[in-house]
Amino acid sequence: MPLPRLRTATLGCKVNQYETQLVRQALLASGYAEAGEGEPADLCVVNTCTVTAEGDAKSRQVIRRLARRNPRARILVMGCYASRAPEEVAALPGVSEVVSDRRELPGLLACLGVANLPTGIDSFGTRHRAYVKVQDGCLLRCSFCIIPHVRPQLTSRPLEQILEEVRRLVDHGYRELVLTGIHLGHYGVDLNRGRPKSEWIRLSHLLARIVRLPGTFRV
């Protein structure tokens, strides 16, 4: 029996690219295979952007194109546009699932056969550069920016979890690691709640630990 075919599409920032890879890795480990060029997919995952009106328009364009080229596929839409306008996204042709809240993603993936969403990635395509997401969310409320409204939960990844991911990526040949997040300067704020100031974890502490890891790489 042929494996179900997967196709992914990502719009927007480095955080989106990392999150798409995390979902892609989980699905491939759960029995999916990449759809080849010109081969119809059974499942399409679209990670959208809403930072500008152009981002919304490009997201809609990609969804419509995938629906046209993969008429029998389930289309799962995630990302910031899906969070900001879930009903608008759900009305687009071919869309079967909309992840309006990122906390819903593990449950939706479970319905697609993913037992556990991994805590990190093992690879990032065929290049020598990989993105490492260290935090999500922003506490600021800049009048010009929509992102705090679609990513309001400030969440820093545990330091040891990040270090383990960096080790895996370096072991797999990645020589440039790009730390990414919605507001990197907020790394550790949520982890530090209730801790004395002398025990606070900041981005500088994370960087100091990363550069002490063995291997030839740069951050």
TrEMBL record:
<dbReference type="InterPro" id="IPR007197">
    <property type="entry name" value="rSAM"/>
</dbReference>
<dbReference type="GO" id="GO:0046872">
    <property type="term" value="F:metal ion binding"/>
</dbReference>
<feature type="domain" description="Radical SAM core">
    <location>
        <begin position="124"/>
        <end position="219"/>
    </location>
</feature>
<feature type="domain" description="MTTase N-terminal">
    <location>
        <begin position="4"/>
        <end position="114"/>
    </location>
</feature>
<dbReference type="InterPro" id="IPR023404">
    <property type="entry name" value="rSAM_horseshoe"/>
</dbReference>
<dbReference type="GO" id="GO:0035598">
    <property type="term" value="F:tRNA (N(6)-L-threonylcarbamoyladenosine(37)-C(2))-methylthiotransferase activity"/>
</dbReference>
<dbReference type="Pfam" id="PF00919">
    <property type="entry name" value="UPF0004"/>
</dbReference>
<protein>
    <submittedName>
        <fullName>Uncharacterized protein</fullName>
    </submittedName>
</protein>
<dbReference type="GO" id="GO:0051539">
    <property type="term" value="F:4 iron, 4 sulfur cluster binding"/>
</dbReference>
<dbReference type="InterPro" id="IPR058240">
    <property type="entry name" value="rSAM_sf"/>
</dbReference>
<dbReference type="InterPro" id="IPR013848">
    <property type="entry name" value="Methylthiotransferase_N"/>
</dbReference>
<dbReference type="Pfam" id="PF04055">
    <property type="entry name" value="Radical_SAM"/>
</dbReference>
<dbReference type="InterPro" id="IPR038135">
    <property type="entry name" value="Methylthiotransferase_N_sf"/>
</dbReference>
<keyword id="KW-0808">Transferase</keyword>
